[in-house]
Write a structure and sequence with these properties.
By secondary structure, the protein is an alpha+beta fold. The chain has helices spanning about 5-10, 15-25, 65-70, 105-115; strands spanning about 30-35, 40-45, 45-50, 55-60, 75, 90-100, 120-135, 140-145, 150-155. The chain has one domain (about 5-130): Pnp Oxidase, Chain A, CATH 2.30.110.10. Pfam families: PNPOx_N.
């Protein structure tokens, strides 16, 4: 089962806000895709939350775009920032990236974001969102959301 960003925002607004804040704290994040041979590729990436969607924009012909065209599965990790603070915790999103071919939709994105031209644009279908953080300097807390399920929270000492 997959869902768009609006689905997470409606189901778990607090988690969605935390995730957006973490991604908004830095410009560049880490995207993992799958190469032709199935091995992982990690690259830097900028993301945008617009119109109830999480968008991934990429340079034309980039290897990560070609990876996603071949196999849409991805994992995305928010930039942890400097040092060990990670205010808001570590945040990861997994799902499928679907390339946007619709000229009208792409034009609306360009109007909002003004990316360098030309570019690849992917909308995401989420399969999992995970937030990990330390609580009271004593517990590791892991929050896991999957479409159609409530957030599951695990605590470890």
């Amino acid at each position: 089962m997959t869902a768009n960003w609006a689905s997470l925002t409606a189901a778990e607004p607090e988690l969605a806000a935390t995730v957006e804040t973490r991604f908004g704290a830095y410009t560049h994040h880490t995207l993992a895709t799958l190469r032709k041979d199935g091995s992982p590729r990690t690259t830097g990436l900028e993301v945008r939350f617009l119109d109830g969607e999480l968008w991934l924009g990429m340079m034309p012909g980039s290897l990560k775009a070609l990876d996603l065209r071949r196999d849409p599965r991805f994992a995305l990790q928010a930039n942890p920032g400097e040092g060990t603070g990670m205010g808001g915790g570590d945040v990861r999103i997994s799902g499928r990236a679907i390339e946007v071919e619709d000229g009208e939709r792409k034009a609306r994105y360009v109007k909002e974001v003004e990316p360098p031209q030309p570019f690849h644009l992917f909308r995401t279908e989420l399969t999992e969102v995970v937030r990990t953080y330390v609580e009271d300097d004593a517990y590791l807390v892991v929050q896991v959301w999957k479409p159609g399920e409530p957030v599951r929270t695990l605590k470890r000492t």
